[in-house]
Specification:
Length: about 425
């Protein structure tokens, strides 16, 4: 192991540790409020690939550069997804907080090669069957219902009352869950708890209930298939088992719900606080597309993604990456890499961001298009229904969730003229 100058390290890190004395802990107040500043500092001090420490001082590499993230995600033969390759497993405690993200599961997320192509192909075919116009109509209906529930009060907290609920209900509708039923509403709530637990919530119990309800849905659709994602996965010639479909459906639902919720809320924040957009907000549609795309560049919902594991010793960004090392994909840092934006001006009209990742394991087509339908419909419908929407607190009072993985507000209070129900 060597430090950033190439000189031998004098520390005594755990075996296989990629980090050295200047490894940066991933966490703290800087990540909560100003991660972009931290990324700039790390890039200046360490280059495009920085040694970092995960929870419990577990070493890993954070890939900060746009070309480097693109390279990692395009070369599965060097940087694989099966986390069982990790050389740090002997140092991982049973209660490690990141285990839900890196512990191997028999889902599409951790498959490789032909097995990944088989599983991802089933998801792609199932999602391609979603009519985007029908999805937009359903999202608008969901949005209208949610807005009606708080429109008469003149105020709302949009994260919980709107941004989280809409994509959860929409993706469950795509999967064939009956809208408005008690168990669907319970599943929406359990999804929120399992992905974004608040004080007093039990995310493990909620995740178990999600798995049980999705298994029940799969069994129902095997008996009575319909025009939905679950049924199309069951009927696919690839012949996935019920257990495989449950795992992959949970992956699809989780990927659609929280990132899309944060995309919606981060876009609303931009529209309500940035003077470039404020003059057009009341029109509803004028600047929504620009704001949605700018958020993917500057406040992308998935900041960092863990991860990839080196299949063999290799070089990346001037670093020696050892076989089994963990690499965290710094999607937010890569999107603001000064190599691609040398004048520090991010062109919102450009769509070459890495917010949906890249390569074989990127968000499967057409999932980004479906997420765009959800987010765009959510924002446009809200602004059309409540055209005088304003932030309910000072902009400086808005706070970001204490997560290095997701970029989202703790809350988005707003005020507006009360509307008749």
């Amino acid at each position: 192991m060597s430090d950033s100058t190439g000189s031998p390290s004098t520390g005594t890190p755990p075996p296989g540790c990629p980090a050295h004395a200047s490894a940066v802990p991933l966490g703290g107040l800087e990540y909560q409020q100003t991660p972009s500043q931290l990324y700039r500092t790390m890039r200046r001090e360490h280059g495009a690939v920085a040694p970092v420490l995960l929870d419990g001082d577990i070493p890993a590499w954070l890939v900060l550069g746009y070309p480097e993230v693109s390279f990692v995600t395009s070369h599965d033969e060097l940087f694989a997804r099966d986390s069982r390759r990790w050389n740090q497993w002997p140092n991982i405690p049973e209660d490690w907080p990141l285990l839900p993200f890196v512990g191997y599961q028999p889902s599409v997320l951790f498959t490789e090669g032909q097995e990944h192509q088989r599983r991802a192909g089933v998801i792609t075919q199932a999602l391609e069957g979603v009519d985007q116009f029908e999805l937009a109509r359903e999202c608008q209906s969901i949005a209208e219902q949610l807005i009606t529930s708080f429109a008469g009060s003149g105020q709302a907290e949009l994260m919980s009352a709107y941004a989280h609920a809409l994509p959860a209900r929409a993706v469950l509708w795509m999967c064939g869950m009956p809208q408005g039923s008690a168990d669907t509403e319970q599943l929406v709530d359990d999804l929120r708890i399992s992905l974004d637990a608040g004080e007093g919530d039990d995310p493990v119990a909620a995740y178990m209930r999600v798995g049980e309800r999705i298994m029940q849905l799969v069994k129902e659709k095997r008996e009575r298939p319909g025009p939905d994602v679950t049924s199309r996965m069951l009927l696919d010639p690839a012949g996935l088992s019920d257990e495989e479909i449950v795992q992959d459906l949970i992956s699809v639902i989780a990927a659609a719900q929280q990132p899309t919720a944060n995309w919606i809320c981060n876009t609303l924040r931009l529209l309500l606080t940035d003077e470039r957009f404020a003059i057009n907000v009341s029109g509803g549609r004028v600047s929504v597309g620009d704001a949605l795309n700018e958020v993917l560049w500057l406040d992308t919902p998935t900041q960092n993604f863990i991860g990839r594991w080196a299949a063999r010793d290799t070089q990346l960004g001037g670093r020696l990456i050892r076989e089994g090392d963990c690499l965290v994909l710094g999607l937010a840092a890569a999107n603001t890499d000064p190599q691609i934006w040398p004048d520090a001006h991010v062109g919102a009209e450009n769509s070459a961001h890495l917010s949906f990742s890249n390569g074989e394991h990127r968000c499967p087509y057409p999932a980004p298009l479906l997420a765009d339908v959800m987010a765009r419909t959510a924002v446009e419908t809200l602004l059309e229904r409540l055209p005088d929407l304003v932030l309910g607190i000072e902009m400086a009072e808005l706070t970001w969730r204490p997560s290095i993985w997701m970029r989202g507000l703790t809350s988005l209070p707003v005020q507006f003229t009360p509307a008749s129900r």
